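Lecture notes, structural biology module. Today: joint structure prediction for complexes of two components.
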Amino acid sequence: MTKPIIRIKNISKSFGAVRVLDGLSIDVMPKERLALIGPSGSGKTTILRILMTLERINDGHIEIDGEQLCHMERAGQLVPADEKHLANARQKIGMVFQHFNLFPHKSVIDNITLAPILTKGVAKPIAEKRAMELLDMVGLADKAKGMPVELSGGQKQRVAIARALALQPKVMLFDEVTSALDPELVEEVLSVLWQLSTETDMTMLLVTHEMGFAHDFAHRVLFFDRGKIVEEGKPGDIFRQPKHERTQAFLKKILAAGHRI
Amino acid sequence: MVESLSLILRGLQTTVSLTIFSLTLALVVSFLAGLGRLSKNSAVRAAAIAYIEFFRGTSLFVQLFWAFYVLPFMGVELSPMQAAVLALGFNYGAYGAEVVRASINAIGRDQWEGCVALNLNYFQRLRHVIIPQAIVIMLPPFGNLAVTLLKSTAIASLIALPDLTYQAQLVRNQTGQTLLPFAIIMIIYFAISTFLKSGIQLAERRLGADRTQPARSA
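The predicted structure, tokenised, for the full assembly:
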């Protein structure tokens, strides 16, 4: 019996008086692809940000690959993790953001090689060779020397994906990676994600409003509302026979807005 | 006339040295105090704020007199050059620290978060991602401060440092001429500040603000 690679146990998170996550628990198995859907403000992005250690939790525990993420053991007790522990835990996780977060002062290839060289001590020629392979995979080998400002949104996002992959994380987090793109650029990014799903067996968490893609991509879909999982199941079941009325209402609204399933 | 000119030119050398030393000290202090103000450590932050507010809140003249006339009572004997570099460097460093702080704050949260996702440590984030972008924002206000510092070096003549202004007064005392020496040093100050300004402008073009637009457009 394999163990979950991510164990989220009863976590809560508040921003001021607003409770964004409320006693949430999720287990994610290795190689599993999870789609997190739900109305904005439902807490799905916050989960990814917590897993990337960009937010702290107020309550609960998270284990990644059997090790505590937000806590560490000290004198037999779990205390909030310090920066060193977090840095260690982060090695297993990569994230792609809605707004790409590329470094505008660095060329495309330098964006990709920066972290492997600095954090893993990879020699520059090796890092560059690997970066070129990744750029090739996302179809941008010819842009290696270009600057981010010269790229379209879809191209930027593909570079951002290559950059995250360069660190070879076990878990990849995709936070609304097509939401900031013009409609005609969405497809090129989704096709890279699709390629990843067929060619690798990385664990992936996808927050998205692209229901059609979530349906094909994910093994399991979680529908969130107000910081809780309202419904979860196989994509076919969630999208075709949602049981909960809030799921039904959400999907209806999304469909009316022109998104396809 | 020739003798007057050579006296003034000797002062030019002193002014240029004083400017370079003070600018260097101010730059180092700017970064230390500016980054200190942004530190997560509250003691470091408090020390940086205390330094910045003290030096911005008191007169440069008084600071110079302290460095030269008061510190000896505390066992610190400084030459006029040392005292002037110290006062100018720390005074302008306090203003520079605010420039450093504001420029780093101007870099979006998305850049910091990109660094976290790539697991860069705090020093690497600053060194490779945040400061290279913040420098482009720092340059114009740093240029202004550099020019102001150059002009402020004239106060060092008050502690008998033989800079341009001091030498001009010397010429005036020796020859009785007033217009000529002061006209000459005014032109020289203007020339150096023009030189400084064009240097900064060159650096701005080199770093190319156009290449570092925020990567936000979709």
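Point to remember: Residues 175 and 207 of chain A are 5 Å apart (CA to CA).
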